[in-house]
Fold:
Amino acid sequence: MMVEEKFYSDRERLVQALTHDCAAALQRGIKEQGQASFLVSGGSTPEPVYRELSRRPLPWSQINVALVDERWVDRDASGSNQAFIENSLLQNYAAEAPFLGMKTPHGTAAEGQADCERAYGELPRPFDVCVLGMGSDGHTASLFPHADGLAAALDPKGTQLCRAITAQQSDVTGTHTERMTLTLAAILQARDIKLLITGEEKLRVYREALLGSDELEMPVRSILKQGLNSVSVYWAP
Structure:
């Protein structure tokens, strides 16, 4: 199993380590390809990493920032990952970075899927860094347990980068069950996959994911157990 655990005694150390590792990977991409791709997730856990990165004087105009997933809401609605990234990462030096969101003007995610696919197909690949989170239900990106569209999105040999997903409503999803997400096949095109979790409950969920095999029950297993790409798991209490 190609999982590297980077566990820290406190969140400040985790933030500093992950910020350093993301910056190094992005600079490597620019050195080798002339530009880099940075796939980012929403949520409060990575926010301090994004704020710290935004203050790093990297060549941000050569770093393409793109979402891992999005709720199908307008950017001025609560829950918009685009707005979250604009307010946390795309500040300071990082305000220069080109940004690609997922929400299109279409009424549904399914209708917007083709446009999203075209846009993501133009990003430089391989992607350099993909930052993922994990929910207490074992979801990652918007790959939710038993969601409508999940099986296709988890096909490691699939050709699509983006998929419309309809999650089963839960305490984790809230009312925004209609999503757009990167597929497993897209995530596996990242050179650096970084799974960020904090707290004892998430550690327990992570260990449960490692023990079982049902990916539809806990989709994060598809990342942890794919055996094709190494995954770095960052955790602090």
About this structure: DSSP finds eight helices and ten strands in the chain. Helices lie at 11-33, 47-54, 81-88, 109-121, 150-153, 184-187, 200-211, 220-224. The beta strands are 3-7, 36-40, 63-67, 69-71, 99-100, 127-132, 162-166, 178-182, 190-198, 231-236. The CA atoms of residues 8 and 236 lie 5 Å apart.
